[in-house]
């Protein structure tokens, strides 16, 4: 299998952390690509129609894309149980969706500053995206700490990668303010070997 990868992508990081945690790194060839909304990667053409990473090319089926699809596939492949069973599965999926929502808003903010001409950047829109992130972090701090502190699952990995991206790109906005329990959990979780090994360099 080939994983189309960028070390700066938080969605790719989710996949890489899962590969570390499930001992599947040796089964995947990592293919580093550079792609942006304005300059798609030629190597992804014909494989991932949205031209986004991560994408997982398989020898026996179509290329998988979207980090949630890839993580579910790899979890099933390893029989790792990162998505739990029965009712607990819905909690994990909801938590992963919340974390990916944080990433969606955070990445939109990054792209606004990086790719839109300065005179066309919209501060109110940036603040609205940050408002979504603030509400999500507050919900994690108030509602999800018991789950985050439990046995390892994909929801925890997704949240940790999302918070790591906030530190990388939007640290000045201060997601930790008012979220002491979440901040303490993240400080501990970020020291896992899988998180250290996948930590992007700014």
Automatic annotation (TrEMBL):
It comes from the Bacteria. The gene is yibF. It comes from Ruegeria denitrificans. Residues 1-82 form the GST N-terminal domain. Gene3D superfamilies: 1.20.1050.10, Glutaredoxin. GO terms for cellular component: cytoplasm. Transmembrane segments: none annotated. This is Putative GST-like protein YibF. InterPro entries: Glutathione-S-Trfase_C_sf, Glutathione_S-Trfase_N, GST_Omega/HSP26, Thioredoxin-like_sf.
């Amino acid at each position: 299998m080939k994983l189309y990868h960028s070390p700066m992508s938080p969605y790719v990081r989710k996949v890489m952390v899962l590969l570390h945690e499930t001992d599947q790194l040796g089964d995947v060839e990592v293919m580093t690509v550079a792609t942006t909304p304005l300059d798609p990667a030629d190597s992804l053409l014909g494989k991932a129609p949205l031209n986004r990473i991560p994408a997982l090319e398989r020898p026996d089926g179509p290329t998988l894309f979207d980090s949630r699809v890839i993580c579910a596939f790899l979890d099933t492949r390893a029989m790792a149980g990162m998505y739990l069973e029965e009712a607990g599965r819905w909690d994990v999926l909801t938590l992963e969706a919340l974390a990916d929502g944080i990433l969606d808003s955070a990445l939109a903010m990054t792209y606004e500053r990086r790719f839109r001409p300065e005179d066309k950047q919209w501060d109110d829109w940036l603040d609205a995206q940050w408002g979504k992130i603030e509400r999500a972090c507050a919900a994690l701090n108030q509602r999800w700490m018991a789950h985050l502190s439990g046995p390892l699952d994909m929801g925890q990995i997704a949240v940790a990668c999302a918070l790591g991206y906030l530190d990388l790109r939007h640290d000045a906005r201060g997601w930790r303010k008012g979220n002491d329990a979440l901040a303490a959990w993240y400080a501990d979780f970020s020291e896992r070997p899988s998180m250290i090994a996948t930590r992007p360099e700014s």
